[in-house]
Amino acid sequence: MSPETVVLISLWLIATLFGLIYLFLRWNFNYWSYFKVNGPKPDIYFGNLPSAVTKKRHVIYDIWNIYDVYKHTDYFVGIFKNRTPQLMILNPQMAKQIYVKDFKHFYDNEASTMVDEKVDFLFGNNPFSSSGEKWKQRRSEIVPGLTLNRIKAMFPITLEICKRMNVFIEGQIKNPSLEGTNAKDLTSRFMADIIADCIMGIQSDSFRDSNSPLLVLREKMFQYSPVYSIIVGLLPVIHKLKKMRFITKEYETYFVGLMETAINIRKAGTETKVRCDFLNYMLQLQQKKNLTNMEVCAHSMTFLLDGFETVSSILAHTLLMLARYPLIQQKLRQEITDKLGKNRDFGIIHELPYLNACIHESLRIFPVDFASTKICTEPIELINKNGTTFKVPRGMIVIIPKYPIMMDDEYYPDACEFQPERFLEDNGGIKQYFNKGLYWCYGDGPRICVTFGFVQIKAALVEILTKFKVKPNPKTRNDYTFDPTYFLARLKGGIFLDFEAI
Question: Where do transmembrane segments lie in this chain (predicted)?
C-alpha cells in the first residue's frame, strides 16, 4: 500500500470519526420540535446552558435570557443541558402547581439521581438529596427536633453568641483594615458557633479561634467535578453507573469523629436530661429507633449543609443591602429600638414586621439558590399557553427559574431596587407573592425548607444594628454580579463592610 493511500485512508477515518461525533452530539436536538414545544436553538457542544461548563458567568444568566425571551409566549419551553432535553417552566402559577398540587408527579429533586449513600453517606441521607419514602422518613425524623419551642429554648445561647460577635466587630473597628470586615467570614464564624452549640452541643468560640470545630476543613467540605458534569450531560446513563461524591472523604472522617466525641460527652454527663437542644432530641430518637451513630451524624450534617453556608450567606447579603440603603437601615433600627429597647424577647424579635420584610427582600435579590430542578416521578400532561399539550415523561428534569421570576419587573416593579415595603402586611404581605408562585426563597409544598436559621438571622441583625451602623467598603462591588464558580448565590469578589459604633 502506497504512502498516499495510507494518508487518504487515515484522513477518511478521521473525517468519519468526526462525522460520527458530530451526529452523536446533535442527533437528539430534534426532540422538542418533534413534540411541538418551543425553545431556543442549542449549541452543539453546550446545549442551552453554556455557562454551566465555561463558567464565564453564572449559569442563572443563561436561564434568565431564555425566560425573558419566551415568558410572554409560553408557559414552558424545551431546552438542552448539553444533549439532555429538560423542560423549563416559565409561568409562576404552573411552577407553584408543580410544587404543591402536582407534587406526587415531581416528588424528587435532581440531586437524588446524583448521589448514592454507599458512596457519600452523609449527603446521601440529606432530605434534599433523598428520594421517595426515604425523603419522607428523613424529614419526619428531623422536623420535630426543631419545633418553635425547642428553638426558643436555645435562644439564650444564640444571644450569647451574638454578644461575642459584637465584641469581634468592636475589635475590627479598633484595628481597621482598608478593605473593611469580610462579611461572609463574620457570618460564617457566627453560624459555626450556632451549629456547634445548638445542634451538636459543642462549646466553640470561632470569633477568637479560627480553628474552632466547624471552621476546620470548611474549605475542604465539598468536591465538585466539572468533567463529571459534562460527561453526564452528554451521556446521562453515567448517573446510573457512577455516582458523584459531594462531601469529601476527608471532611466526612473529621465530622464523624467530631460528632462521636460530642455524643460520648453528652451520654457520659447528666446534661442530656436537661438541655433541650437538637443533639438531645437526636439521642432520644437514636434510642427510640435504634439509629447508628453514623445515622445521627447524617442528621446533624443536614443542618451543617442546610444551615452553615445558606444562613451565613443570607445574613451577609442582608447586611450588604442594609449598608447600601442607609435610610432603610435606620428605619429598621428604629423599629428595633421602639419595639424591643433593651429587651430581647424571642416572640417580639420573631414577629418584627420590618425586620422580616428586610430579610424577605434581601432573599429575593440574593436567594439561596437560583433555580430548582425537579424530577418527573409520574408522567403528567401540561398544557402550554397556545393550548398544545406535552406529556412529561418519567425521569425528565423540570427547571423552575426562581430568580428570573423574582427579578421580573412585571411582578416586582423596580425589581433591582431594595424595597422591603413590598412585604409589609399593609401592602398585602409576603403571602400575596407566595400564593401566586412569585416568591421562591425557601421552596414550597411538602419539601419547603425548615426555618431554624431565620431566628438566628433575626437575632444577629437586632444585635448588630443596635450597636453599629453598617456601610459598604469600597472594595465591595455595587451591582448584583454573581460568582460563576459557586453553586449558591454569592456576590462576585466578596462582601466587605465598614462598621461604625453608635
Answer: 6-25
pLDDT at 255: 85
In the predicted structure, residue 466 carries a pLDDT above the cut 80: yes
On whether 449 is known to bind a ligand per the annotation, the reply is yes
Q: How far apart are CA 125 and CA 319, in angstroms?
A: 33
Residue 486 cell numbers, joined:
459557586
Q: Specify whether the backbone of 47 is left (phi greater than 0), alpha (psi in -120 to 50) or beta.
A: left
Q: pLDDT for 351-369, tens place per residue?
A: 899 999 999 999 999 998 8
d(CA 336, CA 273): 36
pLDDT digits (tens, 9 = 90+) for 286-331: 888 888 888 888 877 777 776 778 889 999 999 999 999 999 999 9
Sheet arrangement for strand 496-501: 181-182, 496-501, 468-472
Superfamily grouping for domain 33-501: Cytochrome P450 (1.10.630.10)
Which of 120, 78, 141, 160 is CA-nearest to residue 382? 78
- Helix ranges, 195-303 (H): 226-234, 238-241, 249-268, 278-289, 293-303
Integer CA distances (angstroms), 123 to 210, 227, 371, in order:
25, 20, 20
Q: How does strand 397-400 pair with strand 84-89?
A: parallel
Which pLDDT belongs to residue 369? 84
Would you call 425 helix, strand, or coil by DSSP? Answer: helix
Q: How far apart are CA 485 and CA 5, in angstroms?
A: 49
Domain boundary assignment for the chain = 33-501
Q: State how far the Cα of 91 lies from the Cα of 72, in Å rounded to an integer.
A: 9
Q: Answer whether 0.90 is exceeded by the pTM.
A: no
CA distance 470 to 326: 8
